[in-house]
Amino acid sequence: MPTLLAVPLFLLLTIFQSAVVSRMTLLQGAADLILLVVIAWALQERVKNAWWWAVIAALTMAYISAINGVVVLLSYLTVTGLALWLRRRVWQLPILAMLAVTFIGSLLVYMGTAAYLRLTGTPLPIFDTFSLIILPSMILNLLLAIPVYALVKDLAEWLYPEEMEI
Amino acid sequence: MSNRLPRSWRTIVIALISIGLVLLAAGGYLTPLTKIAFSPVIAAQTWLSDRYLAIQSLLNAPRDVTELMQRNAELESEVASLQSQVIELQQQLTEYQILSSLLDFARAYPEYEYVGASVIGRDPSPFLQYVIINRGSDDGLRRGMPVVTQNGLVGRISRVTAAAANVQLITDPAMKINVRLQPSRERAVLTGSITGDLVLDFIPQSATVNPGDLVLTSGFGGNYPPNILIGQVTGVRSQDFDLFQSGSVQPVVDFEQLEIVLVIANFQPIDIEPLLPTEYR
Lengths: 166, 281
Description:
The structure holds 2 protein chains of 2 kinds. By secondary structure, chain A is mainly α. Chain A has one domain (2-158). Helix content of chain A is 75%, strand content 0%. Chain A contains 6 helices and no strands. In chain A, helix 3 (50-64) packs antiparallel against helix 4 (69-89) and helix 4 (69-89) packs antiparallel against helix 5 (94-119). The two termini of chain A are 26 Å apart. The mean pLDDT of chain A is 89. By secondary structure, chain B is of the alpha+beta class. Chain B folds into 2 domains: 8-108, no CATH class; 114-269, Rod shape-determining protein MreC, domain 2 (Thrombin, subunit H), CATH 2.40.10. Chain B has 2 helices and 12 strands. Chain B has a 6-stranded antiparallel beta barrel with strand order 1-2-5-4-3-12. In chain B, strands 6-7-8-11-10-9 form a 6-stranded antiparallel β-barrel. The termini of chain B are far apart. The A-B interface holds A 14-15, 17-19, 21-23, 25, 28-30, 32, 34, 61, 64-67, 110, 113-114, 117, 121-125, 128-129, 132-133, 137 and B 120-128, 130, 132, 158-159, 166, 168, 173-174, 191, 193-196.
């Protein structure tokens, strides 16, 4: 059931991302709400289906976006792996982990996307791409990271309630 | 003999005095006297009436305040409802104005068939300049169809689903359009960029291009119909050691305010790849 819940959740988030978030730009950058939810979900201790959520998120984004679906899938899976690896090491500082994964994950995702577009022939000047798109997008992601983490944490606690020992 | 008048005489005297007083009062001769006599009565009446009214308003005040508050709430609710109606009507008016402009454009180019669509979102990736419209293959749209507004060229459809389509804007970095400059009629290539600016490339060195020249689609390559306005030249860069001149273009379409667009439904992009020599494919 928690895995199936990802489908309507990411559909709604993608609609919100496309209709609202992508229009709130900083220079040319925009936040990636889907990525933030994937990271926050993977950082939840009780969650065991983070990989499935990353796959569903990537498929939903690939359906809406003109970016190649494989690139999106690989990006989200990489970020999920990073989050799961960090979760084991920074388990007492979840907010710090969220900010760290958001920073590194956003950098990886955006640089990967830019590299793919350059390889396929889209002229993207490196400096302008970094200063006008990647950095502003990372800043917006970091701003939204903590509120998204709080909401996802509540969702995880609702889906995976803590077992009470009698 | 008794000094007392008989009863009948008393009655007559009283009647005569009464009639006399009435006649005097009717004639206005008793006015000063009545003023003096009635002024204390009127003062007392006024005092008593004021006190009564004060007590009455004091007793009725809670009910009045409650009624006033209720009426106030009703009026506030009505005002809110009317305000939302006003907003809705203003939006409809804006939509009507846009549609009216689009209709004018359609009438100016009657050879094409159009499908109107609303812009419902943007591509989530910040690297791409795409928008999503609410028409798809169910409405006859196909990949490659040009998209315009009443001002000029917007882009072309890159992906289609049953009820929606992705439109690649002319400002997308991967977009290249064959254009013609007016009035020089020189040909060039228009390219988008990540900043949303439009760049003119491959302008011959011999061409005379000035700021203010119009940029239109040339129809070369078969991707767009010819003579659709794109923008205006804002600057030209020419170096003697360069093979070509370059320039910048201000688009006529405001891509931040795109709401309704027209898709040219009866224009099919021409695939010229089979005509190219095999070494260029």
